[in-house]
Design a protein that fits this description.
Largest sheet: 4 strands, antiparallel
Number of helices: 3
Structural class: alpha+beta
Strand order of the largest sheet: 1-2-3-4
Distance between the termini: 35 Å
Strand content: 15-25%
Order of helices and strands: EEEEHEHHEE
Length: 130
Amino acid sequence: MDGDIHHYRDGEVVLYRRNVSPLWQARFKNPDGGGWIRKSTKQRDKTVASEWACDYYDEIRFKAKHGMAAESRTFAHVARQYLADLESDIDAGVRNPSQRTQYGITVDRYPCNAIITGSGGLVLRPPTCP
């Protein structure tokens, strides 16, 4: 970054331009508390870029307020988190150990290219599995 940095929304939105690109980049405080989210605004004009960045920030805050993920997550990411939570529940005696096998098999049947959208929908992309 070359010092061309602008802050909005009490520093929660930062607009900047890299030396190697004419496009404005933005980073946003993750309302879920997980650091920063970085996005290209795909804009050359600072005014248009700042409007886009503030609108995007409003969108992710709305999603967080309503229990939705700020960004899309892969099915694999969500499934790994679910299985980790399941393990904790089994260790705590809240869940039956047989669920480890049942749900693990079910999770393995879904393609690794599935995406869980911020609204909880499932979207399949062309296969990209290793």
